[in-house]
Amino acid sequence: MTSLTRRGGNLTQRHKAGADGGDEEENFSPDVEEVDEEFDQDSSKEKRLTLMEEVLLLGLKDKEGYTSFWNDCISSGLRGCMLIELGLKGRIELEKTGMRRRSLLNRKVLCKSDTPTGDVLLDEALKLIKDTSNMETTQGWIELLSGETWNPAKLRFQLRNVRERLAKNLVEKGVLTTEKQNFLLFDMTTHPLTDTTAKQRLIKRVQDGMLSRWPNNPHRIEKRLLSLVYLAHSSDVLENAFAPLSDEDYELAMKRVRELLDLDPDAQIGKPGVNDVMWAVVAAFIK
């Protein structure tokens, strides 16, 4: 994990009013998705990244071009990203439970539409969900797609070489490049960072979401950003986005992340405008 470093700027003082409410409601646009669309327009379409690519990019060492060998969380985190992406794109949903609502962790995932998304990994996951006769929960699908099963018959659900395939996507988008590195006993393909602007934009987006644009209400955070924070934390790469902050801003950002982690997904799902798959994936990681 990247060590904590200090920098001269301090976002906390500039955004004190928004830290605990104050005048924040006047300054924060209620239409958060429009704000994020403006953000996306700052970059070319080729640089628009999926949640999986963003989490991987946060975890990659810039010069070395690979994730930490000690990180055993990112594999399942990337599968969670896939389910959220499919949920946000309207391809999957949770089963309806009638009058007696069950916990998010107990509700099965259903294929809502098999229309291809245009992303190979997402479409592979969608096909597996659509073709299986045994419905699974979000937690079950995360485990199956990660290959974490003792049932040999279910190994066919595992998506293989996900990190490498995502890295190749980022190479095609001009964010990474491809190199070979020698590790004494073996050679490994690595993908060092070439477009530092793309990663800095991603880091700034996460930092601003927890600092200058913090709305004191998780439902006013754009769904993709909220998903990114949760899944980056579950993948053990979120701290990489906060490492450049001053100590004060770092503590404030982590305090707000802890507030998000303390939320009850089952309580959040009853609020208007939420995505049930997103909160079910969150529940699978934080409970």
UniProtKB/TrEMBL annotation:
Compositional bias segments (type: Acidic residues): 21-41
Keywords: Golgi apparatus, Lipid-binding, Membrane
Residues that span the membrane, as ranges: none
Residues of the signal peptide: none
GO molecular function, one term: phosphatidylinositol-4-phosphate binding
Membrane topology summary: Peripheral membrane protein
Region (Disordered): 1-45
GO cellular component term, pick one: cytosol
Domain of life: Eukaryota
Pfam family, one: GPP34
UniProt cross-references to PANTHER family, sorted A to Z: GOLGI PHOSPHOPROTEIN 3 HOMOLOG SAURON, TRANS-GOLGI PROTEIN GMX33
Family per record: Belongs to the GOLPH3/VPS74 family.
Protein name, entry field: Golgi phosphoprotein 3
Organism: Patiria miniata
Organismal lineage: Eukaryota, Metazoa, Echinodermata, Eleutherozoa, Asterozoa
